[in-house]
Amino acid sequence: MEQQIVEIDIRSWQPQAADPAWIAALEAGKVLYFPRLAFELKDSEKRFLTPEARDPKSRNISLDAKGRLKGAAGDEAAQRDMAAMVGRFRAQAKSLIDAILPRYGDALRLAPTSYRPMQVESRAQSWRADDKRMHVDAFPSRPNYGERILRVFTNVNPQGTPRIWRVGEPFEKVASQFLPRVKPYVRWQAKALKALHVTKSLRSEYDHLMLQLHDGMKSDMEYQRRAEQVTMPFPPGSVWICFSDQTSHAVMSGQYMMEQTLHLPVDKQYDPKASPLAILTRLTGRALI
Ligand code: SIN
Ligand code: FE
């Protein structure tokens, strides 16, 4: 299999370098990996390196686009310091993306920034929610009509523990294996889901197919074992970026990660033909949105 991870020796969140080869690799579904780019915690922030930083009633700690912090434990001062830490990661992630992907610019829409202090391997989940199984990201309640999901990750583990991912085969290869087995799109069902507020807007055929790929991959243990894949330990002090709606990925272990999601309209990519929407449209031979 062609190399799915591209290593880049940048050490600054505002690099002076943008390389067309990195852009093409990212838009082809590869992971851009920055082994020497660290998100530095201040001494006062090291107290957040515990699972107790999270409110047990919440799944995650996140800072929404309006700057509101959700899911954090602790008093007002702790919440303020946590918001500053997560907000600083947001600003650095955004400046990195702006530097290496200058054309995306204002077309990017910021989603919440999250801090995940929980240990991956001790989490018990249903197969559908289990990110230890390789998948492409697709969200059941939020149809996106082909809009891209770009994610910036960093490992902030203080004990040297890597965040271990598996990265699978290219999107087109995944899609051509699972498309023959997907359930057909049924428009009245999509309308019913919207009427029942299961989805926030009408689920398009594109969104249906993406969910079918997500579920098809995760529910097939034979596929999980036999599909071409690489195991990749991302050490503390590193950053990695991918289009998670395109890159087949799974997280096997690790603790203490920060993540920024950004959305991008397909037509603002350098090469819209590389997108999952274009690939699925070509493979099915019909309009999907
Ligand atoms: C995922 O997006 O599947 C999870 C990634 C992670 O927690 O490292
Ligand atoms: Fe995922």
Question: How would you portray this structure in words?
Answer:
- The structure is a single chain.
- The protein is an alpha+beta fold and 289 residues long.
- The chain is built from seven helices and eleven strands.
- The protein has helices at residues 20-27, 76-100, 171-178, 187-195, 205-219, 221-226, 276-284; strands at 5-7, 31-34, 61-63, 69-70, 109-116, 148-155, 163-167, 230-234, 239-243, 249-253, 257-264.
- The strands form two sheets. Strands 1-2-9-6-11-5-3-4 form an eight-stranded mixed beta sheet, with helices on one face.
- Strand 1 (5-7), helix 1 and strand 2 (31-34) form a beta-alpha-beta unit.
- Helix 3 runs parallel beside helix 7.
- The two termini are 31 Å apart.
- The relative contact order is 0.22.
- Fe (iii) ion binds at residues 131, 135, 137, 244, 249.
Keywords:
289 residues, alpha+beta, eight-stranded mixed β-sheet, three-stranded antiparallel β-sheet, 11 strands, globular, binds fe (iii) ion
Overall pLDDT metric: 97
Q: Approximately how much beta-strand content do the residues carry?
A: 15-25%
Bound molecules: succinic acid, fe (iii) ion
The total strand number stands at 11
Measured on Cα atoms, how large is the radius of gyration?
Answer: 19 Å
Low-confidence parts? none
Strand order of the largest sheet: 1-2-9-6-11-5-3-4
From the spread of the alpha carbons, the general shape counts as globular
Query: What is the first-to-last residue Cα distance?
Result: 31 Å
Topology as H/E string?
EHEEEHEEEHHHHEEEEH
Share of helix among residues? 25-40%
**Largest sheet properties:** 8 strands, mixed
The secondary structure category is alpha+beta
Number of helices: 7
